Amino acid sequence: MITMDTDRLVDDYLRRLESAAAHLQRSRRAELVSEIREHIEAALREEDAAGEAAVRNVLERLGPPEEIVDAAEPPPTPARTGKLEIAALIALVVPFIGWLFGIVLVLVSQAWSRRDKAVGIALALAAVLLPFLTLAAGSEHAGSSPLPVGEQRAPLPEAGGGDRTSIVEVMLFAVIFLAGLPSALYLGWRLRRHPAA
After folding, report:
1. What is the chain's mean pLDDT, rounded?
2. What distances in angstroms separate CA 179 from CA 93, 104, 184, one per listed residue?
3. Quick one: how far is CA 95 from the chain centroid?
4. Rounded to an integer, what is the distance from CA 178 to the centroid of its chain?
5. Global pTM value
6. Which residues, at least 6 apart from 137, have a Cβ–Cβ distance to it below 8 Å?
7. Does pLDDT of 167 surpass 60?
8. Other beta carbons less than 10 A from residue 61's beta carbon
């Protein structure tokens, strides 16, 4: 005779099974839980004594739910880090054309998750676009300041003004040439943390 305690044991077991099978498709997960429920019911009908001890014996013979899920459908084997990922990291460090090839290789690779790819590409694009936008904004402000008709612009002081502009431009160009480095470092770090993920 199945009591409330035995029902609870079976329900807890099936809940653990469903939780362990969370990575499976919904239809496959439901099918697996249904198969195990039927197996438990059939095994309990064959038991001499019905009760909590019989249920525990049946569940113990079945084994942990995680092992059932692994036996039913093992998780997919993760992609290995290979030449494609190394080429992507190197390409990201090479200015201009390398960035494009690096981004394409990152998108094609199976070694990084979608989130890792999105963060890596966002780092590369931000590092490339920000200096260009800064240069464009700086040249726009320097070039056009409207003056009333008849007034002349006062000469700018020369003490260090030209040097400051050239230093900023040199720094911006250095940043542009190193733009792919943060992306390459991040994606390389993710490969080291999860070499087979």
Report:
1. 78
2. 7, 16, 9
3. 25
4. 24
5. 0.45
6. none
7. yes
8. 9
Q: What angle do CA 79, 20, 56 make, to 5 degrees?
A: 145
Asked if 51 contacts 3 with a C-beta cutoff of 8 angstroms, the reply is yes
Q: What angle do CA 85, 89, 91 make, to 5 degrees?
A: 110
Q: Is the dihedral of CA 5, 10, 13, 14 positive or negative?
A: negative
Cβ pair 187, 120 in contact under 8 A = yes
pLDDT class for 1, splitting at 50, 70, 90?
very low
Report d(CA 179, CA 101) in Å as an integer: 14
Percent with pLDDT over 70 in the chain: 72
pLDDT, greater one: 146 or 197: 146
Identify which of 21, 123, 116 has the alpha carbon closest to the alpha carbon of residue 69: 21
Give the number of other CB atoms < 10 A from CB of residue 148. 5
Neighbours of 170 (CB within 10 A): 10
Beta carbons of 106 and 86 less than 8 angstroms apart: no
Q: Estimate the crossing angle of helix 4-20 against helix 65-72, to 10 degrees.
A: 50
Closest by CA to 190, choosing from 126, 98, 109, 128, is 109
Confidence of residue 18 (pLDDT cuts 50, 70, 90): very high
> What pLDDT does 53 receive?
85
